[in-house]
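Thread title: Can someone regenerate the structure for this chain?

I was given the following input by a collaborator and told the matching structure tokens would be attached. They weren't. Posting the sequence so someone can regenerate them.
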Amino acid sequence: MTRRPNILLITADQWRGDSLGLMGHPCVRTPALDALATEAMVFANHFAPCAPCSPARASLYTGLYQMNHRVVANGTPLDARFDNIALAARRAGYRPTLFGYTDTTLDPRGRDPNDPELHSYEEVLPGFTCRQPLREDDRTWITWLRQRGHSETLLADPHAVPPAPDGGVSLAPPGYGPEETQTAFLVEKLLDWHAEQEAGQPWFAHVSFLRPHPPFVVPEPFASMFSPADVPAPIPLAADPHPLVRLTRDRALASNFQPGLAGTIAQLSPDDIRRIRALYYGMIAEVDAQLGRLFEALKARGDWDETLVIFTSDHGEMLGDHGLLGKGGFYSEGQHIPLMIRFPGGAAGQVEGYTSAADVFPTLLDLWGIAPGHAPDGETLMPALTGTGDVGRDWALWEFDFRQSPPAEMREERGFEPRNCHLTVLRQGKAQYIHSPAFPPVVLDLAQDPAGSVDVSLLESDLRREMAEALLTRVTTLKDETLASGSFGTL
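Best answer:
Regenerated them for you:
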């Protein structure tokens, strides 16, 4: 390339790593992303380092694992001392512009307690100029729908759908159309901004889509695109579920996943779960359709050949596997996410080694040739993008802090302290090891049980010891190197 590329960073919230046509999914339809993959490097075994949204995005934006950035929940401040993608982009000469959200809680130190920016976890990552916000309350999108002539009845609850005859999950579409989704709203605003950009001046846009995050509601033609009878069945709930699985099932409200549902997710029927899976795949198809619109516009405007495109997610979605919905936990379905990077003039193909969301920030630093303000935990993926070397690890590591999950009576009964309510997972070879101060260790022998449904920690002591030692090695080598490394100053 003759100049710095444009940067288009796309995140889709709660998108599973297996839910792409290009990954061989039996029913998901993603023609726009499948086409992108023919020009991109696809990272098939890419994992989020943590969940939910704020922790996962902190890792994406800083290149750090949760043990170092310490954003443990939505609402935990991101330490202002950390460098990030947007600040680095400014040093590289870009004006990074956000469409959507970063779910960043700002560091309160040095700010007045009355500062309105400290009252929400949905503030903007330092360094970004926010052109079009989209918060959890959907107000900006609802205003857009109002301008399009929708009634106040619809605007009062845009995602409301007629109840299913059996009282379960409804497959009915909402009152807004396929060109009026939150995804379409953000794409329209991004394209308006793109039309204003000076020719020949590299730009950086980060579009953060909400879908396929719940509620599981989508307009036609996507609502009926997939039949619940045809979707793959979920991985069954284990015969003796882990205590954290039981806790989640018993406390997570079904209404969090579709408004109007009663009870908890443990009370959803197998038919309900199949309907949720069908709606989820329809929501993915809706996002893909808008991505196709975006990509075609960039091509028509002559910018495609100068644009580096990153498509990824913050974390996965359990989607009924192991009896769970939502994100987090120790199962891989909640952490395996997509990553594909199209580097103009670069290599296309697929990387099978494990990669992490913590690798995206170091990759951009390498591309721009600038130094970080702290030592990232991740590694650059540029050798794969340029076809000059191999990338990827033989292990994946992720964390989950569940201090907000146990009710007060359980915390008191079991003596749970907040700093004990977390787990660390190492996936290596054909095994997965889960360590938590709150519970006994878990070992999943994926060679014998690919679904990871059975804990063999008491049966395979040698494997348990091997994995525990491997996890200890990984954790101890992920200590902060910012000042310890000679490249960050003389000690």
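The chain has a mean pLDDT of 95.
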